[in-house]
Design a protein that fits this description.
It is built from four helices and nine strands; from the N terminus they run ααββββαβββββα. A hairpin with an 8-residue loop joins strand 7 and strand 8. The protein is of the alpha+beta class. Strands 1-2-3-4-9-8-7-6-5 form a nine-stranded antiparallel sheet, sandwiched between helices. It has one domain. The longest helix has 21 residues, at about 1-20. Residues about 5-25 and about 185-188 have low confidence and may be disordered.
């Protein structure tokens, strides 16, 4: 009888572990760390300074999406407004079909990610998939945080597939939408 109970417990624990692996991947783990640092203006994930100009700076991100070619934290200043964003080039290739497949794979990794920030209710990253077309040159999906409260209402997560100088790039961006809107208005 003891061996049967031990066997059932072993199988149960393996099933729970397998279930957890299905719902965790390194892309959404990285994204969760980035989103958690959004209220801090990405201060905790800013690495070494890469470039600096009069009204902008770019830092290496200490959070990297596995397989990415570049992940950076950007700071720009226009008028009295500071804007911070995290940008990651997750994939780059001349072949549209490979980039399209990677775009869909990353979408599936991000979609329905549950983010838990200390002291707040968890929220879900939710977006509507758009099928990329080669002739469009750009496909962008903006994810919503449901239900977002406080500062998190301004946060946007974006997945983009773009043709840049004959290369197809898949980018993940996290930014303050209110700051971006204010900077766009100030620029016009």
């Amino acid at each position: 009888m003891r061996s049967i109970i031990s066997f059932v417990l072993l199988i149960s624990s393996l099933a729970v572990q397998a279930q957890q692996d299905v719902f965790s991947n390194k892309t959404n783990m990285a994204l969760e760390k980035v989103i958690k640092d959004f209220p801090n203006r990405f201060k905790n994930i800013r690495g070494e300074l890469l470039t600096q100009h009069t009204q902008s700076a770019e830092y290496r991100s200490t959070i990297q999406v596995p397989g990415s070619t570049s992940c950076v934290v950007r700071h720009s200043q226009a008028s009295n407004n500071d804007a911070y964003s995290w940008a990651c080039t997750a994939f780059e290739n001349k072949d549209f079909n490979l980039a399209r497949l990677k775009f869909k794979e990353i979408f599936e990794q991000i979609e329905n990610t549950i983010i838990k920030i200390d002291g707040e209710k968890p929220f879900i990253v939710s977006g509507q998939y758009k099928n990329p077309q080669e002739e469009r040159k750009s496909t962008v999906i903006v994810f919503d945080l449901l239900p977002a409260v406080g500062d998190m209402k301004r946060l946007k997560v974006e997945l983009a597939l773009e043709n840049v100088m004959s290369n197809w790039k898949v980018d993940i961006n996290v930014y303050d939408n209110a700051a971006r809107d204010e900077q766009s208005t100030a620029a016009n």
